[in-house]
Amino acid sequence: MDKPKSEKTITIKINGKDRPFQEKKEEKKGKSWELRQLDRKQEQTEFFASIQTAAGKEADDSFDWILPEETEDEDIKEYKIAAPPNSPAKNGLSTLARKFRGRNKQGFLTSIFLAVFFAVLLGTSFGFIMLKLVFTDQAAETVAPPINETPAAANQQTPAAAADLETITTYIVQGGVFSNNDAAQQIQEANSQKGVYSQSIKMGEQTFLFLGVAGSLDEAKEIGADLKSEGIDVFAKEVAFEGKAIEGVNAEEKKLAEIAPVLYQSLSAGAASATLGRSITPETAEKIESYIKTVNELQADQIQNKSLISVREELLNASKQIDTYQQSGDAAAAGKIQEHLLGFLAAYQSLLQSGGQ
Q1: Which of 290, 273, 289 is nearest to 281 (CA)?
Q2: CA-to-CA dists, residue 212 to 21, 208, 215, angstroms
Q3: CA angle at residue 164 from 166 to 291, to 5 degrees?
Q4: Residue whose C-alpha is closest to residue 169's, from 239, 117, 118
Q5: pLDDT tens digit sequence for 295-333
Q6: Cα distance between residue 177 and residue 208, in whole Å
Q7: Are the C-beta atoms of 252 and 158 separated by less than 8 Å?
Q8: Which of 45, 42, 40 is nearest to 27 (CA)?
């Protein structure tokens, strides 16, 4: 029959006899826990003392320890030693080296690996540095510093200025004075049918019809006499185109406005000689050549004023016709000189009326 779980017996055999040791729990039930512990210790002391005494007397005798029987119902708790928590893995070369060293205790392969790794790292870094330096040098050579070039005079915009137009006093072969432009146009068409060129110019409230220019009043009269012989009613006179200051012109336009009157005077003297069938004097030809050179040196694209554009074109064309006349003595060229100079007077008058606008 099984023993109760609360009772545990220790049996010791001495000289073949069982000497049980069992706590007397019945006697201890009324005692406190502290007294029971003291009684238990005393009983154990007395018990082991008796055993030692018996053992001393019978040294040759043997004894057996009989441990308390284990009951099937009693649960034995099993305790396991928990493994220490794994520390978080550390990244980096030191962790890699430790892991590799753990696998290779001699450290030979680790040294080789680290040497190769650092060699590759150093070489790559050095290569990137050199590559950056090369690209920087190439960029410095490619991107040239800006060159401050002075743009050509033809593309420069000169500031606006004012120019003083001189008064032009000239000698004219005049075909009439009209109160309206329509009457002047009728006479102009009639002269054209006779092969004579004429130019109508409005001055104030009246329109004047001019047929030729001359360098002097006497030359103007001679030209008029030739025209009268062809049945055209004309007379010679002196005409002044009053000068004035014009605004809003640039430097090139100002130069042209200042040189145009003196160039016209030389051209009108040459035109009179050609119209009368005479040779142009060397002095007049030299002046014309000098003034024309100055006009040609002006930047044509800087001349924006319409009246000044016409002034320049008429002067240049008159000069070309004088060159043609000097080379061939052609009477037709002499008539073209008169046409361009009359055209110049019309453009000059238009410039005076507009005030340069």
Answers
A1: 273
A2: 168, 12, 11
A3: 60
A4: 239
A5: 999 999 999 999 999 999 999 999 999 999 999 988 899
A6: 5
A7: yes
A8: 40
CB neighbours (10 Å) of residue 344? 26
What residues does 201 pair with on adjacent strands? 208
Helix (H, G, I), strand (E, B) or coil at 165: coil
Query: Which pTM value belongs to this model?
Result: 0.57
How is 224-253 classified by DSSP, letter by letter?
HHHHHTTT---EEEEEEE---EEEEE-HHH
Q: What is the pLDDT of residue 52?
A: 59
Q: Is the Cβ–Cβ distance between 291 and 262 less than 8 Å? A: yes
Helices (H), the chain: 25-28, 33-57, 93-103, 108-142, 181-193, 217-228, 251-275, 282-297, 306-328, 331-354
**Nearest CA to 295 among 279, 307, 311, 282?**
311
Strand partners, 178: 207
**One-letter amino acid for residue 64 of the chain:** D
CA 296 from centroid of its chain's CA atoms: 40
For 222-258, how does the pLDDT look when each residue is reduced to its tens digit (9 = 90+)?
Answer: 999 999 998 899 999 999 999 888 888 999 999 999 9
The H or E element containing residue 12 is strand 9-14
Q: What is the 3-state secondary structure (H, E, C) of 15-78?
A: CCEEEEEECCHHHHCCCCHHHHHHHHHHHHHHHHHHHHHHHHHCCCCCEEEECCCCCCCCCCCC
